[in-house]
Amino acid sequence: MIRPLILITNDDGADANGIEILTRLMMQIGDVVVMAPDGARSAQSNALTVTHPIRFQKIEEQVGLLRYSCTGTPTDCVKLALNEVVTRKPDLLVSGINHGSNSAINVIYSGTMGAVLEGCENGILSIGFSLCNHSAGADFSYFESYVLRIAQLALQNGLPHGTCLNVNAPDGVIDGIRVSRQCDGRWTKEFAKRADPQGRAYFWLTGAFENHEPEAEDTDEWALEHGYISIVPTKIDLTAYQAMDEIKKWDF
Question: Is the pTM of this model over 0.90?
Answer without folding.
Answer: yes
